[in-house]
Amino acid sequence: MEIIEQIRIVEALLFASEKPLSSIALADCLPEGSNIDQLLADLRQQYEMRGINLVEVAGKWMFQTAPDLAFLLRKEVEQERRLSRAAVETLAIISYHQPVTRAEVEEVRGVSLSKGILDTLMAAEWVRPMGRRRTPGRPVTYGTSDHFLVHFGLNSIKDLPGIAELKAAGFLENADTSRLNLLDNQKPTEEQPELPGSTGG
Amino acid sequence: MEIIEQIRIVEALLFASEKPLSSIALADCLPEGSNIDQLLADLRQQYEMRGINLVEVAGKWMFQTAPDLAFLLRKEVEQERRLSRAAVETLAIISYHQPVTRAEVEEVRGVSLSKGILDTLMAAEWVRPMGRRRTPGRPVTYGTSDHFLVHFGLNSIKDLPGIAELKAAGFLENADTSRLNLLDNQKPTEEQPELPGSTGG
Amino acid sequence: MINNETEQQSEFEDLPSVIDSPDEEENLILDIDGFEGPLDVLLTLARSQKVDLKQISILELVEQFLKFVDEAKVQKLEKAADYLVMAAWLAYLKSRLLLPEEDSEEEFSAEEMAARLTYQLQRLSAFREAAATLMSRNQLKRDVFARGMPEPVIVTRNARYELSLYELLKGYADHKTRKSIADIRIHKRDVYTLDQALERLRGLIGIAIDWTDLFQFLPDLIEGDEMLRSVKASIFTASLEMAREGKAEIIQKQTFGPLFIRKTDRDD
What is the value of ipTM here, to two decimals? Predict the structure, then answer.
């Protein structure tokens, strides 16, 4: 059998295989006396400049996308997501009560913090660990990040309106009536008065 | 970007996928103005004599092992059981005669279609319902899927071996619904004619 | 095509077979189970004529088929029905072929019927060949193979969270509101309803001849201070209601002094 034919066989075997193949396994499919190492060396060279390369991994051989083209196989997708109500509330509590421990957030909210909420807030780079409380167990305290201030257009965390200001701005009333309306089984108020500078990321 | 670099990208993309890719999908990964058809033609030629070939199936492109090496690679353990003679015949009638109703398949074979044959062919994803015939009872018509084309290495239904001869002999004319009676060969119109290969993937 | 093999019949491998009877070797026992219907039998028989399908002798074929059905050991009637219908049709065709053709506008001529049968046999034969050609093609995962180790495209989803300051503040306010609502516990209380009070007052006011202290009309047995307050409130409201209706007059002589009520005379 000609060398070129033997190379074709090695090529096809490596292509179709579901796992890397050893030179011994490949030699089993070739006529006796074939120089498998030479064949593999030739094949590697033939593919050297191509979009796929023949590589040796842990003593076995496989085809692989050329490293400089690996970017083709990676796609980054930006997804806009909405925070859950629980996450928004947690973020609000952390921003108003910081530094605050996880247990304290749970106490304030009256429910245990479901897994992933803190992760989400930290992934969004709004919340960061701040230190440890000097109490038994030395729990981690959380607070908001600079990114949080930038995102919400605040100069400092003190710029967050207090309860009285929230009430004056109609937030609490709004919440109240919407709740009462819900209880009365009426249309809940969905209006979202736009605050200056609150729109846009 | 140089042509050779564009070919490398197409090569890498096709090599990385186990499913056929459309030229449109490939072009999406190339710089604007690239001549994807030319690149594919070049790539096909480059692989013509190799152990792996670039083939066009169901209007898409994929690499697969060279057919002449089947003797080496043929899997003795066939995952699909051998199809019954009835199933093979039914598949042939459906693929050559599509869209075709169950009654028409029965008419050609001169025997009623036993339960499970259509199921088997549909489970193999070779056959799919295509629409309804505009005749009394609005019977479902069947045809083949893209998966069928890929499996049998066909670019389109028109490439079925011997289909021209069958057509010339008048065997692809609408089968009569009553056996052994010469009725007028009016071809009823099809509702929602879905041509094979027209479904995106 | 006709052979003596006694193949194990399975769902996936059914070959037409004609079985030799060990007792009567001259009589072939034909196995209908091995065939895919009467047309399949006809095609097999036609092939045994060893001529081009276009030149088969229909008369001979009819004879062959009738003989086949006659000799076949038919056990399942529903399976045999197809064969019997075909036999009847072929017998009819035979008679038509043998008798001189009569002019008939309604029916097809015997030649047309024979041509139709030939066409059907040719068509079935053609599809069988097509099927064989199709199956002999290189099939994916049998003869040719796709990449064994495909490299999937890894999609990284970067989540970008969108939240406005308004939503943040609203979240906090909602939390505060819910919290304050949650802290109020309103227990269900026993109350003396206005309706009860009205009923009692309307009933009793007739007895009162002159100005009477409103609280004279309170029910006798009242349990607890809360209930007493409820009763007083309801009776008072009831008195106002009756005054509004013009059925009673109320007078209070000094601030925080007792309330006196009497029935109006106008009613009388």
Answer: 0.65
